[in-house]
């Protein structure tokens, strides 16, 4: 589904990604781990075309992803969540989720402004879909609540619902369980496993929480200083000496 080859991104004197390559097969969940500053978020920003690659190629479902304009990425079936949440605090949970579905709306600027009947029907359809997602992620009781003021664990689920509203085939999750307590991490892992199967999404997840990575990922790629230093099953990567040295450390 995704084929990253020799991907390089530089910011002035910093090489954030240095010839990184890996593949993601349809239906897999791949974990991306590594110390702070390793280049994980930069990689996501390349895949969503927020950052320009200096070298390398990315093929998504056979097409050259790096030739796709940023605004067309969602329509290709790629959705992401953000480390620090990409929600609008004053909008209701439902409206935040509807934002995720915006590219499914076919109404143009003029017809939407005139509130033509077709536009209203389309809005109702998208709203019904959003409500289905809210029920699926146990968020129906907060659908009308502004995002601001909700517990962090709830907001992480809203963020997931917003990404799923885009009906993605490839879901990029940036530290989805960062800041959650252990019960919330376990709950989020269960939700992710279930929606991954229901929605048939392929997942790439950046996460520091190794328990979560071990429990949800089929394969793990480890970056350090912009380079891939290991790739394999979660158990293999966890025992890899380079990963232990650069990232995991040894028990005291
Ligand atoms: N827009 C930018 N301008 C300049 N430097 C950047 C930019 N984005 C990232 N970097 C640099 O690129 C390197 C990789 O950063 P990145 O955020 O991708 O790491 P990360 O692995 O996601 O780290 P973390 O686990 O802390 O989120 C860092 O040295 C960072 O300072």
UniProtKB/TrEMBL annotation:
MF terms (GO), sorted A to Z:
ATP binding; ATP hydrolysis activity
Which residue spans adopt a coiled-coil conformation according to this UniProt entry? Answer: none
Alphabetical list of InterPro entries matching this protein: AAA+_ATPase, ABC_AA/LPS_Transport, ABC_transporter-like_ATP-bd, BCA_ABC_TP_C, P-loop_NTPase
Domain ABC transporter per the UniProt entry, residue ranges: 2-250
| Pfam families named among the record's database cross-references | ABC_tran, BCA_ABC_TP_C
Where does the sequence pass through the membrane? none
Q: Which keywords does this chain's UniProt record carry?
A: ATP-binding, Nucleotide-binding, Transport
Per its UniProt record, what SMART domains does this chain match?
AAA
Instruction: Identify the GO cellular component terms for this protein.
Output: plasma membrane
Give the top-rank taxon of the lineage listed in the UniProt record for this protein. Bacteria
Q: Which PROSITE patterns match?
A: ABC_TRANSPORTER_2 (PS50893)
Name the source organism.
Thermomonospora echinospora
Q: What is this protein called?
A: Amino acid/amide ABC transporter ATP-binding protein 1, HAAT family
